[in-house]
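User
Take a look at the entry that follows and flag anything odd:
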Amino acid sequence: MIVKVFVLLLSVLMFSHGAAAQNKPPKPRARDLGVPFEGTPGRLNAITDVAGVEVGQVTLVSGEGKLTVGKGPVRTGVTAVLPRGKNASDQVFGAWFTLNGNGEMTGTTWVEESGFLEGPVMITNTHSVGTVRDAVIAWQMKRQGKTFQPWSLPVVAETWDGFLNDINGFHVKPEHVFQALDEATSGTVAEGNTGGGTGMVAHQFKGGTGTASRKLDATAGSYTVGVLVQANYGGRSGLMIAGVPVGREITDLMPKEVPADTGSIIVVIGTDAPLLPHQLKRVVKRAALGIAKNGGIGGNSSGDIFIAFSTANSGAGKEAGVINLLMLPNDRINPIFAATVQATEEAIINAMIAAETMSGVNGNTVYAIPHERLKQVMKKYHRTNE
């Protein structure tokens, strides 16, 4: 009887927790605070506005207090971006670019050589890249079975979360990678302290995962550009939000022992515009301009690495026959450039707005950007949509 009562009570508690989570209001985003941005977002204002794109995340948070390597505290995770959902056998055209190379994105040598992105883009912490890479291959082998090609070069990127996370404890396991891939969806993308962005710092405020999109009007082809970032870069003094020097206005709430511009940012850009690899190479460089608008400088110790793909031209990676392709003329590419800059800028700020104050190893604390104070600063400079 006691066991039955305990099980029933546990079930009620689990149900209540799930219901509370479902009823919890969504986290505010930059636009909810009146921050003005240029361009028209898609329905979700996320990379998943690009048809077919799916995102999955696993967030790992446990422990507190003094660092014990292998035990915690744990503040990390993994993020998966699947250009064609779980249909990884249909390759997409891709390109990559590095603004500053103190970081890692595996598989990009082949992206550069072939012009194709084969499979998902994964993002995690610096010391979990190998685990995630190997797990992606295992996932592909299991999913594709006999059709799996005898080799794979997964794209896995990283930023460093060691200020908050037991990064040398290797807490991201293959099963977390499988979960992120298997549970990836085309819906709303969780932002802030989520997935690979769980333990990240941006402009010395709490950073993390963020996303945004732009929908071009009919004259520009009605295409969509979506961006997802893992933001872990930047100094406070240079922080700009919609042209406002927020970093000079909010100078407190600084984490201890986190120098300016130590970290990295990963940017993933997706579009349904029919762009070929050399055009995507031009597009992917524009992510740097979005970062610059927020005050990023590509600091010496920062790994600023970007990848872009196009979901158009399905079947372009087939080995048999001659492939007929569609291509947007270069003279019509400027709206794609602008959308990339705008969505990158907003995705970073969305990551910061959604992030919550977090304490981690040895009590290290990174504070969330204070929403009400930010709104007051924006009003001071007459830059608000409220």
Observations:
- Residues 28-52+81-118+188-372 form a domain with the L-amino peptidase D-ALA esterase/amidase fold (CATH 3.60.70.12).
